[in-house]
Amino acid sequence: MDRPVVATFSICACDLDAEQWGVATQSKFLAVGAVVPWAEPHVGAIATQSYANPRYGPTGLELLREGLTAEEVVERLTAADEGRAQRQLGIVDARGRSATYTGSGCHPWAGGSAGPCFAAQGNILVSEQTVAALAATFEATASRPLAKRLLDCLDAAQAAGGDRRGQQSAALLVVERNAGYAKLSDALVDLRVDDHPQPITELRRIFDIHQLLFGKTPDSAWIAVDDELARELRARLERLGYDGDLADALARWAGTENLEERIDGIERVDPVVLSELRAR
Fold first, then answer.
1. Residue extents of the structural domains in the chain
2. What is the mean pLDDT of the chain?
3. Rounded CA gap, 10 and 27, in Å?
4. Is 145 left (phi over 0), alpha (psi -120 to 50) or beta?
5. How confident is the model over 227-239, as pLDDT tens digits?
């Protein structure tokens, strides 16, 4: 029996100023995030799909790490692969150079588009407009954070037709050195929707939760805790069952709500934390 086709559209991209690399993808395929997206800070981002060769991910990153360009890595990977006619691949390297590859045996519509800091591709699509929408949306959203740009790209691609077999899963991966959880991970955003009738909509929903829990509020926006605000915080925490020392009570409540990344003592408070506490 033939294995399933990862009928997919995806975009690999980077924001060189923010030092971020990422991949966003959607497919009529279970758990597309387990196969397609690969990225490493200051190295590059890779999407492998169609009759996907998952080894393109780690091997491609290794070649990028050695200094090969995106185009050279595409050439090296496909030349060594007897199944290249059915593969599809997109790569963005450490300097924002990009390349996309569609084998002659990929199911139509299949193709890609590459430009500065992005490579967009798809197979078994309604039309080429899906890939065109990925590229156009990325180029038109330069002022937005990379993760939000990639989500915008998925929305636009789906609106343009998307995978002609329908929707099932989606994923978003964005990496930045030491910008993930507790500053001990490079995964700034690593979210998957493995099986859902509207996976892009669901991906946005969980991205919003991720931003609530792990997003960063600029230092200038934090609120100084004066005596009046301290009394309010203490009263609200006590009503929720967190009494005792204010700093300890706030930290315990934040830990319960998975907001510990937004706590830094008691001299000032993240407005997101204050809003969540007031909403309880």
1. 8-214, 219-279
2. 96
3. 9
4. beta
5. 999 999 999 999 9
